[in-house]
Amino acid sequence: MLLKINKFLSSDAISLKVNENFVIDDEDFLEKTRLNKIVLLNGEIFKIDDNLMFSGTVNYTFTGECARCLKEFDNTIETKFQAVIVKKEDKESDEIQFVIADGNVQMDETIKQLIYLSMPMKLLCNKDCKGICPNCGVNLNYEKCQCENNLTDPRLEKLKDLLKN
Q1: Cβ neighbours, 10 Å, residue 98
Q2: Sign of CA dihedral 26, 32, 37, 38
Q3: What gap in Å lies between CA 104 and CA 52, rounded to an integer?
Q4: Looking at the structure, do residues 53 and 124 belong to the same domain, yes or no?
């Protein structure tokens, strides 16, 4: 992903709007993340003194599995970030950095890192997902479970004997 900003650097403008669709062609990355290869980058580049700052969002879609019902679904994420555009990457800096060379900003690795870091650890197909029955495995979102409601934790089974007397 290269963002060409030669004209912006040589102009008197103090900001440049960015609205780009990027295609990620790293097959290994796409396979691990189950990511749709098209990523939308929106934002603005600002000239601040002698520095360049990028403020924007990355929008992407990936296929995930619901943690409750195990159904696969497409999930769209929008993550906001701010980055500094530098000539040479500073490995010790805590800031997000894009490297510029010959008027082109290289964004591949940084965008992939942002995607990795912003992916949710637990996915739900919807906030009211009922999940699956732990006894019979029925998806409770689509049908009612026919199991008995008096299931007891086997570790507490001996306590039932106390109630009989």
Answers
A1: 20
A2: negative
A3: 13
A4: yes
Separation of alpha carbons 54 and 19, rounded Å: 12
Please report the sign of the dihedral spanned by the C-alpha atoms of residue 52, residue 57, residue 60, residue 65: positive
At 32-62, the pLDDT tens digits run 999 998 999 999 999 988 889 999 999 999 9
Question: Token digits for 17?
Answer: 């709007």
What is the rounded CA–CA span in Å between residue 9 and residue 101? 12
- Regarding whether 123 and 101 lie in a shared domain, the answer is yes
User: With bands split at pLDDT 50, 70 and 90, how would you rate the model's confidence at 2?
Assistant: confident
Same-domain check for residues 102 and 150: no
Domain, as residue range, for 52: 2-129
pTM above 0.85, yes or no: no
**Judgement on whether residues 95 and 66 belong to the same structural domain of the protein:** yes
Digit-coded pLDDT (tens) for 60-112? 999 999 999 999 999 999 999 999 998 888 888 888 988 888 888 988 888 99
Quick one: 93 and 159 in the same domain?
no
* Residue 81 sits in the same domain as residue 151: no
Tell me the DSSP string of 17-83.
EEEEEEE---HHHHHHHTB-SEEEEEEEEEEETTEEEEEEEEEEEEEEE-TTT--EEEEEEEEEEEE
